[in-house]
Amino acid sequence: MDAAIFGLIVADLIAEPMNVRQPPPPGGLHLVNSITLTTGGNVCNTGVAMAKLGMKVAAAGLVGKDVLGVAVIDRLRESGVDTSAVFATDKAQTSATVVAVEKGGERCFFHTPGATPLLDAAAFRRCFPMFRQCAFVQVGYFGLLPTLTPDLPQVLRELHIEAPKTRIALDTVNPPAQWEQLEPILPHVDIFAPSRTEAAALTGDTAPAKMVAALRRHMKTGLIGIKLDAEGCYLDDGSHAVVVPAAKITVVDTTGAGDTWFGGLLTALHRNMPLEKAGRFANRVAADCCTALGASAGIRTFDETLQRI
Asked: Given this model, what pLDDT does residue 106 score?
């Protein structure tokens, strides 16, 4: 298995376009172009993107024993994602989000955590048999795993002992959890790539190089990236750093762009691309994501993506 993605497994109900700045009056009705049930969260967004890019990828986490959980698992399987490490619980509903997409692609979210707070150290260790088979394990999101986060340093240490060749990546969300919680986690992480907004919240700096320097004091080795939205990304592998511009597109929907960027990066690293080329590949995947509604529809095959970077 090339990668396992652990964390948020979400049923997304995407409605577009929605003018959330001027909602209908109480009891009123506004028509939208479409309402679509799809998948969300780092597990689905990153996992499906990587599967479309030709990677052998597994989902890992929890869903509720409900119709949303069945729908999400079916969608993952249809996309070629292994779901043997996705477990159903009757203690909570499947995590779900209403995604309100404005004209122009910006969006806001109405979210119920559902089963996510049940993701604890025991749930993570339950996935070890899958993790041991993988070149990469991504964990996400730092900021939305309240039960697991205090135990992450210990379980990541255990995973490194059991699977020393597996590289661990950590994904974040805006706003992230507190710096004091991240500090003991970073020494056990091989790849960390927050957005500029998330990195600024964590480090107090605004320049990418200074953000990386602050993170590098605790993450001595490995790859640190800063997602710079329309400006591309900044990547630092400890030896040198590159700034990689974004691909130019007409934005339809930015849902999942950060997750698909991460999926593109892991795919490029697994293919042993040099740092700058890996950044260009990840940027292209994220750009393609933004050309269609939802987090996965715009993703191309590996060869198509590679030809267009």
From this structure: 79
pLDDT at residue 297, rounded to an integer? 86
pLDDT at 109: 85
Closest CA to 226 of 253, 247, 206, 254: 206
48 to 77, 205, 211, 263: CA distances (angstroms): 9, 33, 30, 9
- In angstroms, the CA 198 to CA 206 distance is 10
pLDDT number for residue 115: 98
Q: Are 124 and 6 spatial neighbours (Cβ–Cβ below 8 Å)?
A: yes
83 within 8 A of 73, measured Cβ to Cβ = yes
Residues of the chain with pLDDT below 70 are none
Q: Look up residue 135 and give its DSSP letter.
A: S
In the beta sheet, which residues pair with residue 136? 3, 167
pLDDT value, residue 160: 97
Domains in the chain: boundaries: 3-21+32-307
CATH architecture of 3-21+32-307: 3-Layer(aba) Sandwich (3.40)
